[in-house]
Amino acid sequence: MASCSPDIKLTYFDMTGIAETIRLAFYIADVSFVDERIAFADWPKLKPSTPFGGLPIMVMDGKTYAQSRPLLRYAGKRTGIHPDDPLAALEIEMIVDGLYDIFVAMGTVRQDKDPQSKVQRQMEFKEKIFPHMMSSIDDLVGKTNPNYCIGESLTIADLMLYNVLDFFQKGVVDFMPKDCTKPYANSSKIHDHVVKHGKVAQWRQKHS
């Protein structure tokens, strides 16, 4: 059922990245929101007005909220895909934060301005950091049901896992091969299951 209040505007760059999971959570549940996507060239002008100097930000009823993981937890609670039970939520957030750490580590490498150290850091990420992080995630997910990270139904962890794997599979990270996620069978199965979700398929078609 569509939700009509409060009015929501989610602002991020015109790409997938860390805001995509929030977008998907709202879209799957038919929660109406403004999907504002800004160009990188416009970011310096907007940055000083953001709470922590970063994106995404979300405006509801005139108030601005920030930090991607709290925004995702809110979206999950709002849409019923993040549980109220503290222990169940802890398990899910452990997966979400582990996946978020992959984004952070990758972003740190991409932002390195020194050509020599950047090459070294790219190699370290490719050969050590990414395999270690993804192996840890892969060992934790799909224990109860192979189609979901935790439990028997879709959660924000599944959307986050889908988003991270899709990011690499699309070749957005130029120093990583598109098949770098293939060795992680449990995670790949969950990714493929999320792709088949009707609303996710619609979203992918709209934003391909």
Automatic annotation (TrEMBL):
GO terms for molecular function: glutathione transferase activity. InterPro entries: Glutathione-S-Trfase_C-like, Glutathione-S-Trfase_C_sf, Glutathione_S-Trfase, Glutathione_S-Trfase_N, GST_C, GST_superfamily, Thioredoxin-like_sf. Residues 85-208 form the GST C-terminal domain. PROSITE patterns: GST_CTER (PS50405), GST_NTER (PS50404). SUPFAM superfamilies: GST C-terminal domain-like (SSF47616), Thioredoxin-like (SSF52833). It holds the Pfam family GST_C_3. GO terms for biological process: glutathione metabolic process. Residues 6-83 form the GST N-terminal domain. PANTHER family: GLUTATHIONE S-TRANSFERASE. This is Glutathione transferase.
